[in-house]
């Protein structure tokens, strides 16, 4: 149930923020929030991350649907039942669904969060993108730490057997 609720929360927050941008900004508008670092913009992305597969909305819709189905069917293979993993799964599904709704409705995704780091301008993104990246990043980190802790435990057991 938690997965479903968190996914719905991400989907609703994503759609509300994108609608607010579409209602209050003119396409290609940019409003500095922290000058030289963070802007709110209105950008339409008809591709995936960094505009990959730009102009291929049908393919991106199909990929999103297939990924959501595969994640749902095989979730027990990569989720170990921890609360954190269930929450991350909800973030991931909600994020995928948020961008999927835009692709189906418009053929593109509304992006509005825009960061600059010195001379580097990071591609604009949205709440759904953030949820996806946070979910994947924390999943990788949590599995790395769990694996490291498991290996440390095995090393200690091996050392105790040698000492005993």
Mean pLDDT over the residues: 90
- Gyration radius (Cα, Å) is 20 Å
Global geometry: globular
SSE topology string: HEEHHEEH
Low-confidence stretches: none
Q: Into which percent range does the helicity of residues fall?
A: 55-70%
Largest sheet, described in full? 4 strands, antiparallel
Number of H- or I-type helical stretches: 4
Count of structural domains: 1
Structural class: alpha+beta
Between the first and last Cα atoms, what is the distance in angstroms? 47 Å
DSSP strand count: 4
Beta-strand percentage range: 5-15%
Keywords:
164 residues, alpha+beta, 4-stranded antiparallel β-sheet, globular
Brief synopsis:
This protein has helices at residues 2-24, 57-78, 83-106, 127-163; strands spanning 30-34, 38-45, 109-117, 120-121. With 164 residues, it is of the alpha+beta class.
What does this structure look like?
This protein has one domain (2-163). A 4-stranded antiparallel sheet has the order 1-2-3-4. The protein is globular. The chain has 4 helices and 4 strands, in the order αββααββα. A hairpin with a 3-residue loop joins strand 1 (30-34) and strand 2. The mean pLDDT is 90. The protein is an alpha+beta fold. It starts with a helix and ends with a helix. 24% of the residues are buried.
